[in-house]
């Protein structure tokens, strides 16, 4: 840790940790577990974003599996080259929407590597059972493609039929080679993310973290805000800025959660409002994508500020990838409307956050209940300390994966994300709430993942999607499975 701390920059720390992962895996996971609050922002959001931008330039050794269009027809054979035979979690990206950074092509491999490191550090999935995959189908980012050090397939992206056939061949090859493996789709462009999820979610063990994982983390945070605002969960009126996969993913899970609380589907939809780059999402618009249609209201078109003033949401959720989208005016209006305005600035990395924690607290005169996707430090304002929550996907996906693995689940229905969100929100202590934080400390992450995994696997057995007989002591079975990074 002393060696790590003496480095001048976080990207150097990333390189050092990546080298340690190659050289002494157990030590890497030991320090990742022991110093999780310090290490996580380096190996994952936000520094992993910087690492992806520079990936070809800081490359030391390959970690993971690359697929190009030239491999079509051979994927089953090529998978034989992977030395491990018992893969349990695969994180796959095509690099087209890396965090909020856009198309980074094969440089996006930093994301599967980082997410899988968290599967091990946070939920004890054995590192040998993790497989990072880059679906290297080209990049439309000319600057990256023409970079002399670029390691990816140096062509424009394939799309349409050729693209979906390649993904399908991979998914089918996994079913044959690694029938117990969970496939996590990560950082795909929204239309592809939804298309792939809709094709595979009822057929194979898979989920999309940007749609479903983010949704569960946000939902858990929303449950926790009600302990501060005292507004009952079914009464919440929520406005989203951004209508991409993260935002509609959250809304889709919210509808499920609200219907469980006794609302009709229509009543649930009525509470959720979207604003995107073209203004309020209303039914008269002709530019909406299929995943936006259920949320298009019969309402006059209006811009963001006007929409806040007329609709008067309790909660504002930003998933835009646009830094500064929550201006001083936006926060001020929310604070006029609400005693405790709830502000979620979920875009990643930090450079894309809709506002910073400091802005949210100062512009709301300390009233905001704030959470972000990327971590922010504690803020001092008017002599008081404010502890921003990080709606970190790592609270959910490692536990979901662990639960699914232990139950040998065949699929991951949305119901499991609801269970995971409820479980996570129950781990938020009164002390967290007193400090204004709506998520627990990351130092608790292994226990949180265990609780999430336990609840998720219980649910999988209840739903009849587990492929094994239920063990007598599920908690012990999970504990026995977990990789221990101790010597
Ligand atoms: O990586 C994160 O923290 C959340 C995420 O999946 C994304 O922003 O794409
Ligand atoms: Mg992601």
TrEMBL record:
Q: Does the keyword Oxidoreductase apply?
A: yes
Q: Which GO terms describe its biological process?
A: malate metabolic process
Entry binding sites for a divalent metal cation: 186-187, 210
Q: What is this protein called?
A: Malate dehydrogenase (Oxaloacetate-decarboxylating)(NADP+)
Q: What residues bind (S)-malate, as annotated?
A: 97, 348, 392
Q: Which residues form the Malic enzyme N-terminal domain?
A: 21-201
**UniProt keyword annotation of Oxidoreductase present:** yes
A GO molecular-function descriptor: metal ion binding
SMART domains per UniProt = malic (SM01274), Malic_M (SM00919)
Q: Which residues form the active site?
A: 44 (proton donor), 115 (proton acceptor)
Q: Which NCBIfam families match?
A: PRK13529.1 (NF010052)
Q: Which SUPFAM superfamilies match?
A: Aminoacid dehydrogenase-like, N-terminal domain, NAD(P)-binding Rossmann-fold domains
Q: What does the note accompanying the cofactor annotation read? A: Divalent metal cations. Prefers magnesium or manganese.
Q: Which organism is it from?
A: Gelidibacter algens
Q: Which Pfam families match?
A: malic (PF00390), Malic_M (PF03949)
Q: Which UniProt keywords apply?
A: Metal-binding, Oxidoreductase
Q: Which domain of life, per UniProt?
A: Bacteria
The Malic enzyme NAD-binding domain sits at 211-461
| Record-stated family | Belongs to the malic enzymes family.
Q: Which cofactor does it need?
A: Mg(2+); Mn(2+)
């Amino acid at each position: 840790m002393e060696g790590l701390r003496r480095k001048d920059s976080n990207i150097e720390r990333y390189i050092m940790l990546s080298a340690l992962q190659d050289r002494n895996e157990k030590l890497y996971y030991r320090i990742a577990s022991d110093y999780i609050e310090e290490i996580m922002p380096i190996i994952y959001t936000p520094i992993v974003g910087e690492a992806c931008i520079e990936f070809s330039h800081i490359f030391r050794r390959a970690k993971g599996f690359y697929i190009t269009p030239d491999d079509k027809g051979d994927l089953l054979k090529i998978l034989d080259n992977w030395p491990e035979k018992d893969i349990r979690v695969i994180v796959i990206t095509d690099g087209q929407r890396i965090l909020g950074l856009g198309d980074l092509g094969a440089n996006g491999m930093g994301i599967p590597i980082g997410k899988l490191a968290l599967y091990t550090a946070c939920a004890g999935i054995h590192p040998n059972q993790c497989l990072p995959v880059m679906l290297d189908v080209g990049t439309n980012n000319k600057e990256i493609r023409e970079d002399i050090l670029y390691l990816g397939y140096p062509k424009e992206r394939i799309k349409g039929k050729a693209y979906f056939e390649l993904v399908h061949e991979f998914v089918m090859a996994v079913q044959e080679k690694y029938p117990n493996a969970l496939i996590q789709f990560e950082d795909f462009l929204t239309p592809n993310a939804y298309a792939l999820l809709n094709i595979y979610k009822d057929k194979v063990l898979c989920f999309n973290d940007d749609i479903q994982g983010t949704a569960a983390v946000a939902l858990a945070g929303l449950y926790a805000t009600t302990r501060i605002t005292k507004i009952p969960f079914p009464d919440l009126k929520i406005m989203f800025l951004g209508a991409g996969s993260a935002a509609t993913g959250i809304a889709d899970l919210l509808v499920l959660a609200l219907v469980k609380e006794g609302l009709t589907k229509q009543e649930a939809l009525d509470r959720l409002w979207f604003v995107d780059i073209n203004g309020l999402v209303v039914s008269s618009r002709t530019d909406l994508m299929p995943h936006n249609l259920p949320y298009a209201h019969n309402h006059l078109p209006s811009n963001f500020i006007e929409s806040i003033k007329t609709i008067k949401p309790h909660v504002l959720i930003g998933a835009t990838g646009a830094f500064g989208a929550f201006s001083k005016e936006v926060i001020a209006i929310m604070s006029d409307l609400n005693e405790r305005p709830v502000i979620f600035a979920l875009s990643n990395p930090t450079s894309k956050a809709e506002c910073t924690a400091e802005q949210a607290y100062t512009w709301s005169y300390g009233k905001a209940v704030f959470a972000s996707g990327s971590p922010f430090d504690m803020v001092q304002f008017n002599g008081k300390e404010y502890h921003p929550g990080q709606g970190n996907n790592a609270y959910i996906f490692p536990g979901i994966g662990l639960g699914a693995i232990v139950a040998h689940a065949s699929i991951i229905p949305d119901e499991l994300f609801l269970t995971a969100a409820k479980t996570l929100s129950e781990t938020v202590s009164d002390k967290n709430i007193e400090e204004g934080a709506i998520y627990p400390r990351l130092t608790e992450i292994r226990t949180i993942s265990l609780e999430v995994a336990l609840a998720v696997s219980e649910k999988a057995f209840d739903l009849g999607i587990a492929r094994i007989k239920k063990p007598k002591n599920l908690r012990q079975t999970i504990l026995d499975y977990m990789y221990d990074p101790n010597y």
